[in-house]
Structures are given as structure tokens and as C-alpha cells.
What does this fold into?
Amino acid sequence: MAAVASRFAGLCAPLKNRRRERTPGVFIHSLFPPASSSSSPYTKLASHCQFFHRFTTRMESRGSIDTNEGLVEQLKQYGAIQSSKVAEVMKTINRALFVPEGCPAYLDSPMPIGYNATISAPHMHATCLELLKEHLQPGMRALDIGSGTGYLTACFALMVGPHGHAVGVEHIPELVASSISSIKQSAAASLLKDGVLSVHVGDGRLGWPELAPYDAIHVGAAAPEIPPALLEQLKPGGRMVIPVGSYFQDLKVVDKNPDGSISIHSETSVRYVPLTSLCTQLQGY
Ligand code: SAH
It folds into this structure.
């Protein structure tokens, strides 16, 4: 059974009571058009998606990608997908199930998912899967912090298989609920049913100690520094991939050596939404 446990009772005003008006948002990706100050977040999400729809309609006339398989082939050509294992899992989990309606699912771009969050671009998902693939072998344990749409958590679950564990932690309860309904429609549905895959409401900076230690930890939001709890919950021999920084961010690859020492290298420059408190993320939302 997918567990949904909240660790936030009383910390912030309930989401349903939050003000829905906001001033024009600063979006992480400048591709997004400015939103009107009087529109609701849902209207704005829809308007961003209409923008993408117009954008991709123009692209379609130039032969853009309209299938999940086509997207995977494109990512292979770019070199973002290098292994048959990552190609196979990205073919099996259809990205369209995880992208809000109206957004072009197979465009290699991040998309707004509400709550000042985005689903990462396909090439970033591919990059993280490639970096973690040796730590996502059958029977291993994976933790996905800031699991958002649940797309990568579902990919992790397929890779670790029925004898492993894939755990998503996301602090927006609505995103946890919608990720679970997307996963139920995906090729990872039976793993969710069997408890191999679970998604929880929680502060990802604290990890998910119940199922630690993990062979693989992915963090889908940028931390000012590596949270100590995540380092603790990484198994010796395990690997964490985490964007670190504020405006300028690096995707860090953190290896915990078998003797418990830590090696870190920077893979590439990136731009992720921040790993922060619920209240800070929803400020002005
Ligand atoms: N990998 C996800 C990325 C979503 S964006 C995807 O592609 O769908 C980053 C996510 O991190 C957002 O959903 C945001 O709500 C979440 N997040 C930010 N800070 C967090 C925290 N402290 N704890 C848990 N989730 C957090």
C-alpha cells in the first residue's frame, strides 16, 4: 500500500485555506510567459500550458516529438541516455501520465506542475538515472526527495524491482496525491500496490529514516548545502545526486565509500527549484 503520512500538522496554514491570489510569479524557467496578477494558480498553470501548446503546435509543423518512444530516441541522440537500461525504463514509464493536461509531454523542457514547482526536463531525468543506474540494481533501495510528479520515483521502482524499495518524499500533499494517481496508471502500478514503491508527505531535508540506508538518493530540488540527514541515510557504497546552490547551482554526485568517507564531484551546472520549507515555497502563491 502506498503510504501517505504527514509530518506537518500545524506547521503552516492548511493549503486549502491559502490565499489563491498572487502577484506575477518569478518562474524558474524564463520560457514561461508572465502570469496575470488576478488569475488563480490553476488558471496560470493552464495559461502556461496553453503557451506550451501554441509553442509546440508551431514546433509540430517542424516535426517535433509526439511519442514517449520518440522522446527516448531523441535523448539517446543527444547523449543524455547512454545505456539500454535507462532507455528501457524511460520507454516503459510514459511521461505523458505525469505531465499536467495541456502541457506537451514529450518536449525536452521542464513544465509547471503548480505550487511553484516543475517537473524536471526529460534530459535531467535521463542524466540522473544514468548517474544512479549502478545503485538502482534489482533489490536495492532508492530515495527520491522532492518527488513532485512521481515520474522518477516510478522509474526507480521499475529498476530496483519487486525485491527492492523506491521511496518518494514530497512536502506538498496535493502533489503526493496526484503522483500516486499517475503512478497507478503507469507501468509501476503493481509495485505501488505491493508496497515496493511508496510516496510520503514529509520534509525531504530529513530524508525517510524508516527505510534507510539507501543505495541511491536523488534530490529533485536545490539545497543550499547537502542535508546531513541525507548523508547519514546513504549506505556505504551508495550514491546521492543532488543540486546544490541558490542562483548558481551544481549537480553534485556524492559517493559514500565503503569505509564511510565521502567523495563529491560536480557533474554540471543546473537550475532547480529550491529545497526549502513548505511556507517559503508557497510564499506569494
Ligand atoms: N523530480 C520531480 C521534481 C519536482 S520539482 C519531478 O520531476 O517531478 C522539486 C520538488 O521538490 C517540488 O515538487 C517541491 O514541492 C519539492 N520540495 C521542495 N522542498 C522540499 C522539501 N523540503 N521537502 C520535500 N519536498 C520538497
